[in-house]
Amino acid sequence: AGMTMQIKTTSGTHATHSLDVAAHPSAGWKPYDPALKPAPGGKQHRLELRATDRELEVAPGVRQTMWTFGGTVPGPVLRGKVGDVFVITLVNDTTMGHGIDFHASTLAPDVPMRTIQPGERLTYRFKAEHAGAWLYHCSTMPMLQHIANGMYGAVVIDPPDLPSVDREYVLVQGELYLGQPGSQAQVAKMRDGRPDGWMFNGTAAGYDHAPLTARVGDRVRVWVVDAGPSSSTAFHIVGAQFDTVYKEGAYLLRKGDPGGAQILDLAPGQGGFVETVVPEPGHYPFVDHDMRHGEAGAHGILKVTR
């Protein structure tokens, strides 16, 4: 709220784009649903995941073709418990090779992470051995290009005895590179580490316009995964303190400890969650506290009402 940034960039076709994170989204835009559903019952979870090219609104009023898992950026969130088995069928509906790498798996990558060609499919089966907030992403080289163009998602494996909360959300942070996907100009920006913006769940500043919600006194848990591919994040909620911090499979802070926390810091490929109790009504901005990122789209609102 109140953060404005104008960015101009040139794509491989020399078209000029303007990124204004304070603008309004297009009519009909729908945000990626950040609400995290409970882990489903049963010990085996099956999903068909289709690699598709899709034009999406990546910033207010800005549309771009993205490479996706399932037609969204990020792809579908998977959730389960330690010991659960996931059977994922990847189908390649695009015109180029793609693969997939689930960080939640422990297995030899040779076969399940191989690149499949257009029209092909593969089955990726893994057992969740450890709890955590895990990244999945395209495994085809150059991975920098495939991840940066949207081929990533999150897998949440609940820690044992994870308590229930009033509100539970998941945010996957990624970089935004405008321009024709795969063009020399776009790839040069990726290699130089010059994103045009940063996104939570596929749209820069999207949750400014479609806030996360809670009520006064709610315990809110936010899972965060940093998809990168190159930028770290320093996740912060303005006006809140975290009494629980879980990062990379371990609690750094638990409810009842004498201290509090202000940041969940994640390198590319890492994940975790934080919890806070919101004390009064208002608008609580959540940001990547690296303000180069926060002011260029890694920003949203948690709206709290009575």
UniProtKB/TrEMBL annotation:
Q: What are its cofactors? A: Cu(+); Cu(2+)
Keywords annotated in UniProt? Copper, Metal-binding, Oxidoreductase, Repeat
Q: Which reaction does it catalyse?
A: nitric oxide + Fe(III)-[cytochrome c] + H2O = Fe(II)-[cytochrome c] + nitrite + 2 H(+)
UniProt binding sites for Cu cation 2: C138
Q: Which residues form the Plastocyanin-like domain?
A: 54-160
Show the Gene3D superfamilies listed in the entry. Cupredoxins - blue copper proteins
Binding of Cu cation 1: at which residues? H98, H103, H137, H146, M151, H289
- Keyword Oxidoreductase tagged: yes
Give the E.C. number(s): 1.7.2.1
**Entry GO MF terms:** copper ion binding; nitrite reductase (NO-forming) activity
The text of the family note is: Belongs to the multicopper oxidase family.
Outline the subunit composition.
Homotrimer.
Its recorded name reads: Copper-containing nitrite reductase
Its source organism is: Actinomadura bangladeshensis
Q: What is the lineage of its organism?
A: Bacteria, Bacillati, Actinomycetota, Actinomycetes, Streptosporangiales
